[in-house]
Amino acid sequence: MSKRENKLDQLSALFESASKVKLLDSLQRAKGNMEQAANIYLEETEKCLEKKVPLRQTKLELFFHDTSNSETLKSIQGDCHAGSKEQSLTEASREGQIPLKITSLNEILKWPPLSASKTKAKPKRNVRPVLRLYHAHDVAERTQCTLIHDVLPKDLANSLLKVMLEESETWQRNQWWLFERMVTSSHTASFYTSTEENKTYDGEVYYNGKKTESARAFLPEMEIARRAIRDIVNEKRKGRDRHEFEIQEYWNPNVAVANCYSNSREGVGWHSDELTYLGPRPIIGSLSLGATRQFRLRQIQESDEKSSRIISITLPHNSLLIMWPPTQELWKHEVCPQNVLDHLHPIAGSKRINITFREFREEYTDEWTPKCSCGIPCVLKPVMRSGPNNGRYFYMCYAGRAREGQNCGFFEWLDVSKRQNDYERKRLNLLQKQKNKSI
Ligand SMILES: [Zn+2]
């Protein structure tokens, strides 16, 4: 296949309903640059429709800047008043906006609308309020998650909370570029790697297009909690169907992202967790300690009114929320800023500590991750939109997150089966070599 045909194929995959002639024309005018070609195509479509419908977003560079969405910005700047019925209704009405005819790359890949908050769409008549869930059986019924209360022995939960509160004094706020401005997250976070499992991951980690500070080692209390949570998750997993491409063997968390929400105003906007090092369909075990907060979920699926309802799960101290696959592919989640907390925690006060246990997979380390022309590892993303590309994964340039306007437009589909086979072959070769040496 020629380079041009390959690029045309990629564009067709992104703009499924577009005619190949138009896409080829855009590609030629952009002299083969994919990002420009997509922009030209979008601008042309925009011109055709601008008198008929308002546009949400058509600029590709914004798409490239954005791996969360405008709601991240909104959540950081504003307050969505979790728990207030009236505000919850407003939230739900924002979800139910009338779909626009225009498609941007953002919509095609099914990130949430970029400028939804600016669009004055009429709210739907049948607005559905946010659904608050407290009980494990309701969470199991309505989501792809499992909620477990009082998951750790009481003393362990309390001592873990105490050491993490101390640790959190030195955690950082994340920063990235969004809509041509630098955004800083309201909460602080840090990345930890298990010393017991360090053979699995000891490389560098890129987040928001830049190298993170070196991973910190799990504290002893974290290791104990890791083992307990690992066993509980694997036990719960026995009764569940395995998805293609998820880890088939024992789930063995080897890293954790720890977050601290100091007060009710700190939160994190709608996003799904990055797949770059986790691979497709990850399992994430999210432990909550300290102040009780609302954790919101909403399903990403176009033209499906029912699924767009926001679900808010109450996460008290010492609760575990297991996000089973394909939660990261089909749902977004957020921790919404609140005006007030229901009550303060006796140890943590208004602070919530969240430890998310994850497994970095060997076949998704930097060694296997393509680098774009910017020289940094790409980000791995799923296609969230339903249609022929649903269920596929792709790599794209991640540099725009760290440096304004710098993005090389790199795009590459991931062949998951091929990756698994290549990895398996390499692993067996290494084993054979070791065996030969020892003979
Ligand atoms: Zn790049």
Automatic annotation (TrEMBL):
<dbReference type="InterPro" id="IPR037151">
    <property type="entry name" value="AlkB-like_sf"/>
</dbReference>
<dbReference type="InterPro" id="IPR027450">
    <property type="entry name" value="AlkB-like"/>
</dbReference>
<feature type="domain" description="CUE">
    <location>
        <begin position="3"/>
        <end position="46"/>
    </location>
</feature>
<dbReference type="GO" id="GO:0051213">
    <property type="term" value="F:dioxygenase activity"/>
</dbReference>
<dbReference type="InterPro" id="IPR010666">
    <property type="entry name" value="Znf_GRF"/>
</dbReference>
<dbReference type="InterPro" id="IPR032854">
    <property type="entry name" value="ALKBH3"/>
</dbReference>
<protein>
    <submittedName>
        <fullName>6313_t:CDS:1</fullName>
    </submittedName>
</protein>
<feature type="domain" description="GRF-type">
    <location>
        <begin position="372"/>
        <end position="417"/>
    </location>
</feature>
<dbReference type="GO" id="GO:0043130">
    <property type="term" value="F:ubiquitin binding"/>
</dbReference>
<feature type="domain" description="Fe2OG dioxygenase">
    <location>
        <begin position="252"/>
        <end position="361"/>
    </location>
</feature>
<dbReference type="Pfam" id="PF06839">
    <property type="entry name" value="Zn_ribbon_GRF"/>
</dbReference>
<dbReference type="Pfam" id="PF13532">
    <property type="entry name" value="2OG-FeII_Oxy_2"/>
</dbReference>
<dbReference type="GO" id="GO:0008270">
    <property type="term" value="F:zinc ion binding"/>
</dbReference>
<dbReference type="GO" id="GO:0006307">
    <property type="term" value="P:DNA alkylation repair"/>
</dbReference>
<keyword id="KW-0479">Metal-binding</keyword>
<dbReference type="InterPro" id="IPR005123">
    <property type="entry name" value="Oxoglu/Fe-dep_dioxygenase_dom"/>
</dbReference>
<keyword id="KW-0862">Zinc</keyword>
<dbReference type="InterPro" id="IPR003892">
    <property type="entry name" value="CUE"/>
</dbReference>
<keyword id="KW-0863">Zinc-finger</keyword>
